[in-house]
Design goal:
By secondary structure, this protein is mainly beta. It has one domain (32-151): Immunoglobulin-like, CATH 2.60.40. It has one helix and eleven strands. The protein has one helix at residues 2-23; strands at residues 32-39, 42-44, 47-51, 56-62, 68-73, 77-83, 99-100, 106-112, 117-124, 128-133, 145-151. The strands form two sheets. It has a six-stranded mixed beta sheet, with no helix packed on it. A five-stranded mixed beta sheet has the order 2-1-4-9-6, with no helix packed on it. A hairpin with a 5-residue loop joins strand 7 (99-100) and strand 8. The protein is globular and about 85 Å long. The model is unreliable at 87-99 (pLDDT under 50).
Length: 152
């Protein structure tokens, strides 16, 4: 009789653990993080890839000795949050913040002083290939550009 009770408790314990593990919630994940570093006169990496409707947190780090920025024009995206970065406007640079210009194309833009970091969290909506670049005068021409690909 004692032996049957031990088996009963063992079976009950195993079944309970099985049920509890099956009821556990899935892993909650946040946005996928992509880090882009800028220095004179290059971005690392030069190619970015993300999926349409994927939440992405882009971390932009200026490892250089002068102001650099990260610009993507014409990418339809929902900007969720932007932190850090300079909100000034240097002559010849594109718009200083991430927003849709009045009647113009959408722009994602992060300007960062040397040694600083900025982040932007967004959801790209349009599949395609987009150029990203540094709009500080002369930097794009010196090679500060890359490709951002949005896949279905």
């Amino acid at each position: 009789m004692m032996r049957n009770r031990q088996w009963g408790w063992l079976v009950l314990t195993v079944l309970s653990l099985t049920v509890l593990s099956a009821c556990g919630g899935g892993t909650v994940t946040g946005p996928r993080e992509i880090t882009v570093q800028a220095k004179e006169f290059a971005f690392t990496p030069k190619a970015l890839r993300m999926s349409s409707q994927e939440t992405v947190r882009l971390i932009f780090q200026n490892k250089g000795t002068v102001l650099h920025d990260f610009v993507v024009a014409d990418l339809e995206a929902e900007v969720i949050e932007q932190q850090g970065g300079s909100l000034h406007h240097t002559p010849g640079m594109d718009t200083p913040i991430a927003y849709k210009r009045h009647g113009g194309p959408p722009v994602i833009h992060l300007a960062v002083e040397p040694g600083e970091t900025a982040t932007i969290t967004f959801i790209p909506h349009e599949v395609g290939e987009y150029e990203f670049y540094c709009s500080v005068p002369g930097h794009k021409e010196a090679g500060m550009s890359g490709t951002l690909t949005v896949t279905p």
